[in-house]
Structures are given as C-alpha cells and as structure tokens.
Amino acid sequence: MKKVPVIDLSQCTDCDSCLEICPEVFRRNKGTGLIEVADLALYPEDEVSEAICICPNDCIAWENE
C-alpha cells in the first residue's frame, strides 16, 4: 500500500513552509495559486513527515492509496 501526502486546502494558510521543506513534493499550482502535491511514484517520507510536523495548521497528512 502506497502512502501519499494530502493537503486539506480548507485549512491551508499559504505559509509556504511545505514548499520550503519539500519542494519536490509540494508546489503551487500556477493556474489556481493553491498548494498541491506532485504525483510521484514514491514520496520521501522523512521530508514529508517534516513538512507535516512544521505545518502550523496541521493541514498535511499521510493517506494510504
């Protein structure tokens, strides 16, 4: 089972901390301006976990796909 990071955009305040910690996973959608998760075969668990810990609104979580 693959673990995938997800963002609760209703809680996201655009602080950009996830972009700074893990830019290979998190990016800003140029069309909508919202943060999104890149579609990767594998996600770097340590970096994503750090982004989860540093997120001030706890809007990032792991989900099993």
What is the CATH fold-level name?
Alpha-Beta Plaits
> What's the average pLDDT?
96
Assigned CATH architecture = 2-Layer Sandwich
Head-to-tail CA distance between termini = 6 Å
Low-confidence segments, given as residue ranges, are none
What's the shape? globular
- The SS-based structural class is alpha+beta
Q: Which oligomerization state do the chains in this entry correspond to?
A: single chain
Number of strands: 4
Compute the CA-based radius of gyration. 11 Å
Content of β-strand: 15-25%
Order of helices and strands: EHEEHE
Fraction of helical residues: 10-25%
Largest sheet report: 2 strands, antiparallel
Report the CATH C-level class. Alpha Beta
For the record, the count of structural domains works out to: 1
| Total of DSSP H or I helical runs spanning 4+ residues | 2
Strand order in the sheet with the most strands: 1-4
Features of the shown structure:
alpha+beta, Alpha-Beta Plaits, two-stranded antiparallel ribbon, 2 helices, 4 strands, 25% strand
Structure in a nutshell:
With 65 residues, the chain is of the alpha+beta class. It contains two helices and four strands. It has one domain (3-64): Alpha-Beta Plaits (2-Layer Sandwich), CATH 3.30.70.
